[in-house]
Design brief:
The complex is a heterodimer of chains A (352) and B (330).
Chain A: E1 8-21, E2 24-37, E3 41-45, H1 52-60, E4 68-77, E5 80-81, H2 87-93, E6 98-101, H3 105-108, H4 115-126, H5 131-144, H6 150-153, H7 163-175, E7 181-185, H8 193-210, E8 213-218, H9 221-227, E9 230-235, E10 238-244, H10 245-250, H11 255-262, E11 313-316, E12 319-321, H12 328-336, H13 341-351
Parallel strand pairs in A: 3-8, 3-9, 6-7, 7-8
Antiparallel strand pairs in A: 1-2, 1-4, 4-5, 9-10, 10-12, 11-12
Helix pairs in contact in A: 4-5, 4-7, 5-7, 7-8
Chain B: H1 3-31, H2 36-39, H3 48-58, H4 64-76, H5 90-125, H6 130-142, H7 147-164, H8 186-223, H9 227-235, H10 239-276, H11 282-291, H12 295-323, H13 325-328
The chains are: A alpha/beta (352), B mainly alpha (330).
Bound molecules: adenosine-5'-triphosphate, iron/sulfur cluster and magnesium ion.
Chain lengths: 352, 330
């Protein structure tokens, strides 16, 4: 299932971001492509270090520089490439049309200013209002995100709030200018479980109320299942697979996606069934050649996968994948060995 | 708990600390070998009638505890004892010297703090640039040069050489003002005092300013990697707003903490600089007191210097309370 072209809010094309560090060039994002439709929630999932946060920062143009640089690609928002905007034009979009919230609400708020000041700062920056109006708006948005007695709490400092309440403050700050896109980078990872559920609930409710799209970054497949319309799976600086949530959960194509899904324990599965991807995410200074997943992949076709980076293929409308099991090269490779891809996959599965 | 009780707590603490400091000074002074407190009873430089009066006033025949109580009582009345060397009350001498030290140290402190912090901030924001590299180099070279040496070079160039070669300008390097300048009116006095201030002040500024910049630069570089800076960027603020609103307020906190430490250093520096430039402040007074074994004067100077240091610390802590909301709520 895919939606028409005019429903696209954001399109990321071939984005590449490297970090030039003393140890070497960290090829954090090699090439990523995905779209975000209007008022949908797109999950961005992958193991730690796969480049989710760097993708988000690259979209917003706030990769720490030095050492980071966005080297190529386009970030098309409302038909306009954000990378071509001047820095002052880009600042008008940040915090206004595209907002972002971060993983750790304990450190993401400035400790020496009241939360009210920090919310009002964004309002004053992007809207023609005076201090008093901005303060009133801050109180309104604070109560909207579920902060009790907001008219008093507005003058409190971040250290006077719990983690969950601080994340609500961050959300209030992000929502205060009615953004069309919210990038939420693991917004619940550092919170305890009951609070996590409340924050996710809040995000869901506000996205509907504000008719806002969300890119929800997480490495929790459970959260994805709960929240998202579509999922993009990232691995080591590439997009491995994109599809709607039904497809990804019922019929994942990419060996990495299968591994990730295997890594969520299901009550009905016994311990032996639990496939967990062996190995760890590679060093991105000297990443593996070809498909970066090949050293960990059970389906690795020796002689092909480590030599050629697979192209992105749209197998069904809206279902995109980057893996040689589905490319022409892959089919030719297996054909030479007189085997068709289906049988090959079954053989590998059986061997496990 | 708010700002008011925080202030009250800190003031109380400073008073207690000061009390402890002068107690230590008293006992060191009275327990020291040779008991300097009593030395003037046998010092031929003290006139007999003065000696008797002092014995009486300071209860020197009494027990140590009694003497301590008398010492506190006299101190409370502003009596710090009697100087052998000057043959005048210590409080009177310090009263004359203190304003000069306050002028010299105060202006050095303000210049160093304000310009040092600004310089450090600007350099931190341009980290890795040529300016930054030059700064790091300069800082390391300059750390290796002793203060009195800088003072002597300044005297030699801007005081001595400038004068004998008839340069269009030179600066005095002895005293705090030209004797007899008062007859020319207040305006001339002010100019004259500033003119005399130039060399010693410059040396103190050179000695201190890069330290402040270095510290501020380091703090801001650290703060720049904090998560809330990322939040500020994501909001759409520009670099200047991020630096001055979000970075600066946080980076300045450790600097304020270090004000206390830097005040000790500043006072140490003032002893050197006032001595090299024959500047009539309490630093030089302390040096003279040590040189001539003028114990009452020494004790009096210590008491004043301890007071200055604690005032500096108190100032730093109050400032911290204003800037950091977390501190005042503890
Ligand atoms: N400032 C930086 N300097 C150097 N390398 C960086 C920097 N920021 C990120 N990286 C590297 O980029 C790669 C991707 O990091 P990123 O933070 O995007 O991962 P992530 O998918 O968000 O992981 P997590 O789930 O742990 O948040 C990592 O190898 C990381 O080391
Ligand atoms: S390209 Fe090859 S190595 Fe990479 S995921 Fe597909 S099968 Fe595995
Ligand atoms: Mg991350």
């Amino acid at each position: 299932m895919s939606r028409p072209q005019e429903d696209i809010l954001l399109e990321v094309k071939g984005l590449r971001t490297y970090f030039f560090t003393e140890e070497g060039v960290v090829k954090a994002i090699e090439s990523i492509d995905f779209v975000v439709y209007k008022s949908e929630t797109l999950g961005l999932v992958g193991e730690s270090g796969s480049g989710k946060s760097v993708s988000a920062l690259s979209i917003l143009g706030i990769v720490p520089d030095p050492p980071g640089k966005v080297l190529r690609g386009e970030v098309v928002f409302h038909g306009q490439d954000l990378r071509k905007l001047s820095s002052s034009e880009m600042r008008k979009i940040r915090g206004n049309q595209i907002a972002m919230i971060f993983q750790d609400p304990m450190t993401s708020l400035n400790p020496v200013f009241t939360v009210g000041n920090q919310i009002a700062e964004a309002i004053i920056l992007h809207q023609k209002v005076n201090k008093k109006e901005a303060r009133e708006k801050s109180i309104k948005i604070m109560s909207l995100v579920g902060i009790p007695s907001a008219d008093e709490r507005v003058d409190n400092y971040p250290f006077e709030f719990s983690g969950g309440m601080r994340q609500r403050v961050m959300i209030a700050m992000a929502l205060c200018c009615n953004p069309e896109l919210l990038i939420a980078d693991e917004p619940t990872t550092s919170l305890d479980v009951t609070i996590q559920a409340q924050i996710l609930e809040l995000l869901k409710a506000t996205s509907e109320e504000f008719d806002m799209s969300i890119i929800l970054i997480t490495h929790d497949m459970g959260v994805i299942a709960e929240m998202c319309d579509r999922v993009a799976v990232m691995y080591a600086g590439y997009i491995a697979e994109v599809g709607d949530i039904m497809t990804i959960f019922r019929n994942p194509f990419h060996p990495y996606t299968r591994g990730l899904l295997g890594a969520i324990p299901r009550p009905d599965a016994n311990r032996e069934d639990l496939t967990i991807i062996r190995g760890a995410i590679p060093n991105l200074i000297n990443p593996p050649s070809g498909c970066r997943f090949h050293p960990r992949c059970d389906y690795w076709m020796q002689g092909l996968c480590e030599n050629e980076v697979p192209v992105l293929l749209e197998l069904e409308p809206g279902h995109i994948i980057m893996c040689h099991l589905y490319t022409e090269e892959g089919k030719a490779f297996l054909a030479q060995r007189k085997i068709d891809p289906e049988t090959y996959m079954k053989q590998v599965l059986a061997a496990q | 708990m708010g700002l008011k009780s925080y202030i009250a707590k800190k003031v109380l603490f400073a008073v207690v600390a000061y009390f402890a400091a002068i107690t230590v000074v008293f006992f060191i002074y009275h327990v020291m070998p040779g008991n300097p407190a009593n030395i003037f009873a046998t010092d031929p430089r003290v006139p007999p009638e003065v000696r008797d009066a002092l014995l009486d006033r300071w209860g020197l025949d009494e027990s140590l505890w009694k003497q301590y109580l008398i010492f506190l009582k006299n101190l409370f009345q502003g009596d710090l004892g009697y100087s052998f060397l000057h043959k005048r009350p210590v409080s009177e001498i310090i009263g004359e010297r203190l304003p000069w030290t306050l002028l010299l140290l105060g202006s050095a402190f303000i210049i160093n703090a304000v310009i040092g912090i600004l310089l450090g901030s600007l350099i931190a924001w341009r980290r890795g640039s040529k300016t930054d590299t030059a700064f790091v180099l300069t800082y390391n070279v300059y750390n290796a040069i002793p203060l009195f040496f800088v003072g002597m070079i300044f005297i030699s160039i801007f005081g001595y050489q400038a004068r004998i070669h008839n340069w269009p300008f030179y600066f005095p390097f002895i005293g705090a003002k030209t004797p007899g300048i008062e007859s020319l009116g207040t305006f001339r006095v002010i100019l004259d005092v500033l003119w005399h201030l130039v060399l010693p002040l410059t040396v103190l500024v050179i000695a201190g300013i890069l330290g402040w910049s270095w510290f501020m630069r380091g703090n801001l570089i650290n703060v720049k990697t904090e998560d809330f800076i990322q939040t500020a960027k994501a909001k759409g603020l520009n670099d200047k707003q991020i630096l001055f609103r979000h970075g600066f307020r946080n980076a300045i906190l450790p600097v304020i903490t270090s004000i206390g430490m830097s005040i000790g250093g500043l006072i140490g520096g003032s002893v050197l600089v006032e001595t090299v430039f024959t500047y009539p402040g309490t630093g030089r007074l302390l040096y003279e007191a040590i040189l001539y074994k003028d114990y009452p004067l020494l004790q009096g100077s210590f008491i004043i210097i301890a007071g200055l240091t604690l005032l500096g610390l108190l100032f730093a802590e109050l400032l911290y309370g204003f800037v950091d909301p977390r501190i005042r709520s503890e």
